[in-house]
Amino acid sequence: MTLANRLRAAIAAEHSAEMIAHDGHVNDLDAHEATPAAVLIAVTDRAEPGVILTQRPETMRRHPGQAAFPGGRVDPSDADVIAAALREAEEEIGLPRHIPEIIGTVDLYRTITSYTITPVLAVIPPDLPLIANPHEVAHIFEVPLAFLLDPTNHMAKAADWNGRERHFIEMHWEGQRIWGATAAMIVNLSRRLAWQG
Q1: By CB distance 3.0 to 4.6 Å, which of 50, 59, 103, 188 could disulfide with 44?
Q2: More confident position, 118 or 115
Q3: What pTM did the predictor assign?
């Protein structure tokens, strides 16, 4: 069975895992004010699949230096969240929109900054010549899917945020700290896939 078919079967399967729905304290925000956004979870089709992540430049106004999936807000010109994720990936890392094989969308995630993010799961060929847009991406890197989906790599953390204790997941791969919304979406994917390798 191909990687794409294995992923399709896994996300279609029944599961009882509890998903992380939001950053916490989002009840303070009106759901109607949330901005729709989409990210591309691009899985490389190799013997040991990986996931493409980016590091945001330190100069960015929002989330400087953080690890993230390619993605951003849904524009009025986007046909849907899948089109938005593909457009953003093309803009950020030079991934042509026609290349990803779309598997489907997975669990929505709501951020405390009032974005509702739809993760779009896709498979891409390995070792593509991706090019970082320097205005949005400082570095492109690939993390083994098995590492990301292994619950033993998901470390529970807490920190003060605007006078409140915020709980989040953190994981580390070769000097990269993956945390916050990106880590939460990875945890949700892990729980949904119950990855068997």
Answers
A1: 50
A2: 118
A3: 0.90
